[in-house]
Fold these 4 entries.
Entry 1:
Amino acid sequence: MEKDRICVVGGGFVGLTTALAFVHHGRRVVLVEVIPDKRVALASGQVPFHEPGLDDALPAALASGNLEIVGDLTAAVSSSCATFLCVGTPSRDDGSIDLRFVAAAARDVGRALEGRTTPHLVVVKSTVLPGTTVGLVRQAVEETSHRTSDTGVSVASNPEFLAEGTAYRDALEPERIVLGTLREEDRELLASLYEGFPGDRLAVDPTTAETIKYASNSFLAARVALSNEFANLCADVGVDWYTVADAIGRDPRIGPMFLRAGAGFGGSCFPKDVRAVTAFGRERGQPLGILEAVLANNEAQPLVPVRLLEEALGGLAGKRVALLGLAFKADTDDVRETRAQPIWRALRAAGAEVLCHDPMAGKTFGQLEPEAVIMPSIDAALQDADGCILQTEWKEYQAITPEQYKGRMNRAVVVDGRRIHDPVAMRAAGVDYRAVGLGLQG
Ligand code: UGA
């Protein structure tokens, strides 16, 4: 066991980013990835998903000799002082969280610690509901290792706040590091692993740490949903939500971030975490009614741009529609919970022919919706279209000119679901431009 050697279990988005950030700050990391194909790719310096910065950081970390990618968890755990669990926590059909992978990883780590005498801290980084670390995880580790904190095996929670697209930077330069521990020595060890990282250290207990993560994502998701709700009202009364948002965002008590109205929030975190915590609240007899409404808003919101296009075209049946933007946000190929999916389905259900495009997520969206027609370029998607919906704020789409819409499309009707264009400039140039949160005269 080495004092500055860390084991990270799970070579996905969170595990890999975390491992690379630790290596960058001088720690030695052994990353356990059990899926052979993924392991081989990672060990050869290839990142199996798109995330800015990782393509350079991974080969550099491997070359430094401070990152090892392995499949054998037992040796990795026993040669380290702490293990970070970074495994997936998928949703079940009822929205509750499936802790199968966390439980299995905790048991594997426990088995690796059995019969040893060196101390070890099992740190949960996966997003798990309040009480999971001191409950299910501690129990699994203790049962399999036959050790407790009295014999040096303890558990902690250290949630991540990584946003896709900026994850590596978020990991290298966190605003805060939440150290959720049960004992002073665990806090000291965890803090020492983060030596050299910037950011405030918040020392709490594991259950508080877990709650911080859910509260954080719930508040952000709720801001987006409230922005969407207000945006719909603004459009109805003929004003522009973005003008309103700019004004309210200047109040320091509100702030300017996460007020962008559009087609709703997607991704692997907000929808899943809000569903999980509302299911948890219901189960505990503490219903989270505001968050239930957030989820309902987010289901309805993708239909707003569809309705705007339908109004503009006088119906969608037989119309050719370009759907630009399939990823759940820009700078990723991730389509999990993307709002492009309900938009695509609604357009098709209304009888439209849909030509899709995305700079990066064409392939992943095609796996989600095998019948989707993915066009190779923006121009190909726009060609002869009767209308266009912009779903992702890619910079490639921001650069589309009014002339391009007018030159390619049958009718230059553009519904901006992410407010990437300037309404005044688009309308002045003759585009029939409509947008979520924008009154027609707005
Ligand atoms: C989110 C959080 O921002 C991270 O802090 C957190 O660590 C992460 O979840 C997680 O739990 O792992 P992420 O899902 O990558 O990160 O993306 P966000 O940038 O938060 O966007 C989520 C969704 O909200 C996107 O669909 C985005 O388009 C939408 N959004 C965001 C809006 O519609 N309006 C906004 O103003 C901001």
Entry 2:
Amino acid sequence: LQTGSGAWRTASVERVGVESVTVSDGPVGLRKEQDGATLSAVCFPSVAKLACSFDTDTLREAGAALGEQCRAQDVDVLLAPGINIKRDPRCGRNFEYFSEDPYLTAALANAYASGVCSQGVGVCVKHFAGNNQEYGRMVCDSVIDERALREIYLYAFERVVKESAPCSVMCAYNRLNGEYCSENKRLLTDILRNEWGYKGLVMSDWGAVADRVKSIHAGVDLEMPQGETDRLKRALEDGSLSGESLTAAAERVEALARSFDRTARNADSEYQHKLATRLSAETTVLAQNNCKILPLSKTDKIAVIGAFAQYPAFQGGGSSKVNAYKTDNLLDALTRAGVDYCYARGYELDGTTTEELLDEAQSVAASRDKVILVVGDNACTEGEDCATLSLPQGQLQVLDAVTSANSNVVAAVQCGSSVDVSWSHAVKAILIDYYGGEGCGQALCDVIFGDEVPRGRLAETWYSNLPRFAENYAADYRRAVYAESIFVGYRYASTANVSVAFPFGYGLSYGGFTWGEAALSRGEVKSGDKVNVSLTVTNNGKTKDADVVQIYSTNLDGRQFNEKKRLVAFKKVRLKAGESKKVTVQVNVDDLAYYDVDKGRFCVNGGRYLLTVGRHADDAGQVLELTVAGDNDTVDRSGELPSYYNVDENFAPSEEEFVKLYGKELPTVTTAIDVNSPLCELQNTAFGRFAVNRLLKDVPPRNVRSALASPLRAFAANRMSADMLDTLVAILNGGFRQNIFKLYKQNRAYKKLRKRNGKA
Ligand code: BGC
């Protein structure tokens, strides 16, 4: 029971009536694999886009639809949501994650989980924890100071575990503060179970277990996918593993298996496709709308430029990739809407262009009243980070050509994460579409012509310039030092007072809203209290629309270093055309807390706080003052941590300063050759080079960099047994003569065994 039965199931034990549990990837459509193929399922907008709803109802609705897909395809646990924080916009998996902000992530992830679970399906919250870059993800050590860990990287996990009691949590591939997450007892047992009271199952990410015995000791109940059990048997015999630990793990798998009602249900794919389309339209972010060019009129003569108008970038790559039920595109939607348009491809799907394509795009743009230019990035994928935020060179050339021919350009950006928009002055409007799911073509058409209004608000900062501390992001496969600590996303930008392209929380609307004066229900509070902020919101538009009231706190008196703004509450307000509504947003005083490392818990400083009621993180908004009763016994460490107290555009704390914050020496980077060594470190001997060449034989050139930063053990699956892997390591450590014959013999035995088991 403690290891999978194949890739997507747990083992069953018929004798005692324990059925197997079927798991499958999400997060925006089921990816059930059957007989070597992926079954089709409706592909919803990426989580990055759904998060722009700033709306728990939206996430609940999407979650329920995904739960329904699971029931229809006999899946018990959806391997989602991923709730890692977007530490850097270049993380290859950002499209799967909600936000750079832990509070927003927690609220939306809880809603998503409640939707999935409403269908009797379990969720698996992942990737626990500190998995914020893809490069070297199975080797890299995320070095995070305790305060940032608790306030930023563990915060959403803590809230989801406590509020949604997910049936499973997936531990991440990476190391965290010196130890693999899968071997990290502090993370998986001390914090998750003992502090947070988690009762569910911990499974490993696929192939994240480096040492099964250590991982059981740390708290991994289920290794996925299927692994070998010989080592466990030996460990039981020699006493290094106790029967109790193994039983505890197996019992959690059993408890999970017994927790489902497996009555099959149907998923109505047509209905879900429509839902995916509507959610895509609603979560689109209107980032710029000069001269109110949008919405366009269906009688305008329009040029549509960009290959994505025909082949949309609607989902990212990797384990979340869905075999979409039916993919829409903008051109077909325009045709259905009876719009008069001419189309030019402009660029190829790989982002390159040619003189011919440029000329065609330019002349089509010149011949029409208005241009819809679809650009973006279709390459975001698990396993690789993005090298740059810039659009592909060919698309930038198209942008130049088109904007020089026509001044009425509406750009729609399809992307997994934020991109550089330094070209924004050249276009009139920008619609941020992210990866909009399979209905994105119709959704974009609806938004462009005002049949739906864009209501999205950015769940991440769109930078003009990346912060200085981000210069080394994902440069090292061995160690990622989170020297910026709590200053992530807008928490950095607001504190450093740097201007950004589009701030966190930002999004325009077609009609506009007016906000009345905001008032606090009380001005003096203490930890545990709740305080209400009320104001009247009026929709000035001609159609129903929705605005988002956001509340950011500023801690004025705390002597620890603090971010200038922190989201502590938000509310989506839906209004009919012309309607006014009194809105009350509740702020939980405990959400003003910081993590006190010495006390080992969250504490709310006594003293004054500002609550800014605004439309986004940069909005001066309306400022209300709150006084919190309590101690302010934090220590002023500005003398030893000057960078953290004076955050500006040059903020880039040195490793030396970070070590003081970290409170101890940074974990050492081991250079010993073992099963966890990345391939690139094995090439010092002739045999090492030979072995690495063999292992890389079938790896496509674009994946070689990440493969070289992957551990030797990752290449062992289906190629060698754990014992062979150990022998290989002994050879790589200089024991060629002593071990080569042993390896040969082990290889023969392994091949025989596989043949007997019917595997090639
Ligand atoms: C990913 C997980 C996913 C698993 C199973 C891993 O590579 O990191 O998010 O659930 O594969 O497909």
Entry 3:
Amino acid sequence: MEQEKEINKKIEELRQEIDKCDKLLIEVFQRRMELVMGILQNKRENKLPIFHFQREQEILERALSNLDEEHYSNEVEDFLRNILKISRKLQSQKLFPYNIVLIGFMGTGKSTVGKKLSQKLAMEYIDTDALIQERTGMSINEIFQNYGESYFRDIEKDVIAEVSNMKNTIILCGGGVVLNKENIIALRKKGKIILLKAEAATIYGRIKEDDTRPLLNGQMALETIEKLLQKRKETYKDASDIIIETDNKTVEEISTEIINKLYLMDEYVGKECSK
Ligand code: S3P
């Protein structure tokens, strides 16, 4: 009995120490975030490049250099990685307080670029085709085969209306989303629209083995792509706020270019930011 009391007392003391640690951690964390915001504001005012990803690596390496397993090195790494991610997310929300919408022809790299952007900016992403497949329980091919294109476009329109209302999300649109003006009006309300462009030959090279695109099934050829691309060219252009050429560029280069172009559209860049 007496012994149990002693143990409970000890545990209670340790808990109080933990509470003190948490309080300190929160204070230090908040201080860190304020410093990050200070740097961000400075960079915006002086038009300096943002998101110094190399610096994240340096922070991690420096912090871990003297630690070994006994000093919780794995856990410290996890902890720091999370802090860096939260910090990136906070900066993205400040810099890009809208949805980033990727449009473009099939095979222009919307999905790969979108995932990369989501990683770099610590922003959520959503793929409209994936959402359509999830909602209907069918693949895009099955929807086209069983119900036809106009049925698919109706579902697509509903999905676009829904995702357009999201906040701070990267929205990857199916290649035909631009065909309906209403979709673009909806997406533009809370988003900036980025067009990924590629030459027909590049697109053909990227998707020729792929049979998940019903519009090209059975007629996968450079000429088919050229024709459809030509037909949609102006519509894509008219819908976009930013155009990115993707030929001969890596995903890393394309996503960095998007971030930089969006950053330069920021009305505060080069001016003193209000607090
Ligand atoms: C389409 C593009 C596809 C998909 C559907 C129709 C189009 O999306 O939505 O097959 O009309 O261009 P991806 O561009 O993501 O392949």
Entry 4:
Amino acid sequence: MLSVFSLNSIFLLLIALLGAGVALWVYFSNPKARTNQLFLLFTIFNIFWIVFTYFSDITDVYSMASLAILYRNLAYGSVFLFLICTYFFVKFFTKKTETNVFLDTAVVFSGTTLLFISLFTNLIVKGVEPRNWGNYPIFGIGVYVAYPAIILLTILTLYLLIKNYFSLSGKNRIKTQYFILGICIFALGNFICNIILVPWWKNFPYYYLGNYSTFFLIGFTSYAIVKRKLFGIKIVLAILMVIFIAVLLLLDILILTQNATFQFFKLLLLVAFLNFGRILINNVLKEIEERKKLERLTKKMKNANLKLENANRKLKKIDQAKSEFLSIASHQLRTPLTVIKGYISMIREGFYGQMPEKTKIPLENVYISTEKLVNLINDFLNFSKLEAGKIELKIEESSIEEIITSLIGELKIEAERKNLKLSWEKPKNPLPKLLIDKDKIRQVFINLIDNAIKYTKEGSITIYAKHIILNSHKRDKVIIGVKDTGEGITKEDHSKIFESFSRGRAGTKLYTSGSGLGLYICKQFINMHHGRIWVESSGKYKGSTFYVELSV
Ligand code: ADP
């Protein structure tokens, strides 16, 4: 069977080899980083410390006492170098590299002085005494300086670490938490075993347990340096706790319990505990994952919102620029067009003498095109005014019949040109007069009849009106329908054709140069009159009827 002594040797050697491997791995993951360089150094000195202690333990005191003393002193020398490196490591690891000349010098000076004392004198360890577990050091007078110095350097490093820790945030903070955890376990292990137990309990057989604790320091720190994503420290503590209790239970079963039945029940308890620990840790992990997901989602949403806000702002600017451009361009175009239209009318009416027959049709075409342009520009102007909220109604008592009659006269030429029958079915009894803005309502019916002509290839366009008499509490209504036998309107188009710049199937097919503003303006104008406008159609190629309802 392995004795405690040889088991200890194997453990320490394993830790030394593992530590060296980890330190090199961390170093080569980024050899230029100061943190990685210092980590390599402090791990190496840490290993030296363990290895020299081990060598001192296995040296035969009777034949090579001075060698055993030298190893022990070398181990102390390594401790001082380790402490110097750790102090500077903390600075770089917590990214607070500013120099404090006094402290830095004090650390280097005291560390190196003690290093020389341990290397070249036997002031710290003056002898060794064989015990059944190794060689116990006999301390010299130097120990009264060495131990306080070790404690002071440790406190200083911890102070620096904790001070820097509170100014850190996010990933760096979690990384530092790992290092702090490692250093706490390490310092605690060494403090209890090497500083409290060894000097006072002369035959303390487990002093090497302090050395084992280095495993946590190297492990946690290397993990924190290399790993990009780290678990929160709470989960690590939970895992450590579970492991710690499991080890205690195991030791209890193996060492303290002699009775086989008890051992069996305690084993069951251990298994149950391990299972409980697994569930606990899994739940915590799940919760962490959920929280992270939520955080990620919130972050994404915030970003998306920000982008949307920006886009919105830009769009508003562009929109404003577009409205201004439309308004200016339309104003500039409308004046010359009105002049052109006026002259053509005068030529057609013979004001400049008899017009040759040949010229009549081309001139009619020019007139129609000009008319279309004027309508288009009016749409643009109305749109930009609507957008800017600059439209006001000039309400007066008007006859809707008169408006439509005059419009039919104007639009007849275009309908006849397309061989369409344009008829106005006046109601038998004259319609009541309405309080409306004549120009706006006129514009509405120009758009509706013009559309009916545009989107009808053959057949007819009929305009009719109805007076709907309601009871005395409600106002009467007038409904005017513009019915055509044209392209019809599909279901998808129903909802969108009244939006600005929105064109339907018929629009993109038959009249590519349209603006998609006509119906939008109609709707806005009718809304301003508190009326209603809608369309009914049985579908593609089945004609459509646009209705306008106004209160009397
Ligand atoms: P535009 O005629 O310039 O496209 P409008 O706002 O006047 O703009 O019309 C929007 C769309 O509604 C048109 O593109 C067309 O598809 C559809 N539409 C309007 N009137 C009719 C109609 N009488 N018959 C069939 N489709 C129509």
